[in-house]
Amino acid sequence: MRSKDKISRPIELDTLVIGYGNPMRGDDGAGPALAEQLSERLQPWGCGRVKCISCMQLTPELAGEIAAAHRVVFVDASLDIAPGHVAIRRVTPKSPANNFSHHLSPGAMLYLCRRALNAEPDAWVVAIGVESMQIGDVLSLLAAKAVDRLARHLAYRLGRPRHEAAQARPAAKQRHGTKRR
Fold first, then answer.
1. Is 180 inside any structural domain?
2. What is the pLDDT of residues 7-47, one digit of tens each?
3. Residue 104 included in any domain
4. For the segment 51-65, what is each residue's pLDDT rounded down to a tens digit?
5. Residue 2 domain flag
6. At what angle do helices 30-42 and 141-159 cross, to 10 degrees?
7. Any domain includes 107
8. Phi-psi label, residue 28: left if phi above 0, alpha if psi -120 to 50, beta otherwise
9. CA 35, CA 66: separation in Å to the nearest integer?
10. How far is CA 113 from each of CA 66, 97, 145, rounded to the nearest angstrom?
11. CATH number, residue 42
12. pTM score of the predicted model
């Protein structure tokens, strides 16, 4: 088999949410707090298609979990955006700058999955704007509100059965050139 051939792997999860950061550094714990809150919100639906992981950092040991998912959402704190705001961007595989690190970026995790496990799930980074990463285990008010809003939104989007989600999508707009009656 050529190295570029994809191995047929069963997709075990629809979505994997990984919230990472240090809960003992104030708002840096926003990612793990989101993963825990989302997991609690999804329990009433008995949603086995979504798995939430809370961790301090992204490590190579997570590659198997990531490879088993159709979609991965990485959630982290960010000082680069306004406190309480949320930014979402797509992630693509990217070779790690340092091959000898146990802490990897989302792009490096995808690169590892593609190279080692022949898997490349759709991936997104959700950054939560934070105020402070001082020592302490409490989120600031703005970060806590952003985590709560995001957990509610993701629970609604990810927790519904597929047929409900498809019905909730807006109908396509009518193309010009057709007559309306």
1. no
2. 445 557 799 999 999 999 999 999 999 999 999 998 866 66
3. yes
4. 999 999 999 999 999
5. no
6. 40
7. yes
8. alpha
9. 15
10. 7, 16, 33
11. 3.40.50.1450
12. 0.80
